[in-house]
Write a structure and sequence with these properties.
The chain has 313 residues and is of the alpha/beta class. It contains 6 helices and 8 strands. The radius of gyration is 19 Å and the shape is globular. The N and C termini lie far apart (39 Å).
Length: 313
């Protein structure tokens, strides 16, 4: 008998492998394990892609292609269909409510990581099987940011305890408790999302820059846009929300290209920030839908999927 955690991960991995087999453009040689790519949209609605809703006002040709060439699920159930729980369940195969987080999400990436360093993950299983593993995109599972005087910064608000909170963080120190501790060989992260501090990227376990620029919240610029379009918080100098999706997509493409030159199979966990607010699509995505800026963010996600598929091919 396998222990419960092994059965859970085996089931999740079987699902991933089955989905890959159903959507693969061509069969891999029997002697070589298949490459595995998991793409996660952020707050993507059931009725957003046209493969689920022909009346959708958002063109989604790449998602539609995946549905046409693979499997499309129409009966799904979740105890918490939001950011943090989805990521936890995807990587561990466990119910999200088995963590200390009993409802909703982490409200800042300065909270203690939800996945313990000893917890089994899909990445760790595949790493032991010889896979090259990467986590690219939105993390939102908690990280350990070092304090200048030792220990880790902690906070439970969108920005770390107010405008002065970032003084409690030493961004020159390695960030702990993230993907590298959980079976990933490499990572390129948006720590908490495009609406949560700190607004910067993390390469493996190092912050790129420091969040030294404060921005105020901005109200929606289009009628019908729910909530804030831009949240307040601390940003790295030169930060632009519009560049998040293209940057993450380029990193995913680079990992695939590098892995193609290696002898090992690869596992890519690509967690897009789109279409979650802030609703700030890049210029080339503006007006691509008939559903406002959020619809344009869905189009951006579909664009990212298309870029990943093209690089795989």
């Amino acid at each position: 008998m396998f222990p419960p955690v092994a059965r859970r991960l085996a089931g999740l991995l079987s699902f991933v492998l089955g989905l890959l087999a159903a959507t693969a453009a061509g069969a891999a040689p029997a002697s070589r394990p298949p490459n595995i790519v998991v793409i996660l949209g952020d707050d993507l609605g059931y009725g957003d892609p046209r493969c689920y809703n022909p009346a959708s006002k958002i063109p989604t040709p790449n998602l539609d292609r995946l549905a046409a060439e693979g499997l499309r699920f129409t009966d799904a159930h979740s105890p918490a269909a939001v950011c943090t729980p989805t990521r936890y369940g995807t990587l561990t195969g466990r119910y999200s409510w088995r963590t200390r987080l009993q409802n909703m999400v982490l409200w800042t990436e300065y909270e203690e990581p939800l996945i313990e360093p000893t917890r089994e993950t899909v990445a760790r299983v595949l790493q032991r099987a010889g896979y090259r593993t990467a986590a690219i995109g939105k993390w939102h599972l908690g990280l350990n940011f070092a304090k200048p005087d030792g220990g880790f910064a902690r906070g439970k608000t969108h920005h770390l305890n107010g405008r002065g909170g970032t003084r409690d963080v030493d961004f020159t120190q390695p960030v702990q408790g993230g993907p590298l501790a959980l079976g990933f060989d490499t990572a390129f992260l948006l720590p908490g999302g495009n609406n949560l501090d700190p607004h910067l990227f993390i390469a493996d376990d190092r912050a790129i820059g420091k969040p030294t620029v404060w921005r105020e919240a901005a109200a929606p610029t289009q009628p019908g846009t729910s909530g804030l379009e831009v949240h307040e918080g601390w940003m790295a100098e030169g930060w632009r929300d519009e560049a998040i999706g293209p940057t993450l997509t380029a990193q995913a493409e680079a990992f695939i290209a590098a892995s193609a030159r290696a002898e090992r199979p690869f596992f890519l966990y690509f967690a897009s920030q789109a279409p979650h607010r802030n609703c700030t699509p890049p210029d080339f995505a503006r007006g691509k839908s008939q559903a406002g800026v959020r619809g344009d963010m869905v189009w951006e996600f579909d664009w990212s999927v298309g870029r990943v598929l093209a690089k795989l091919e």
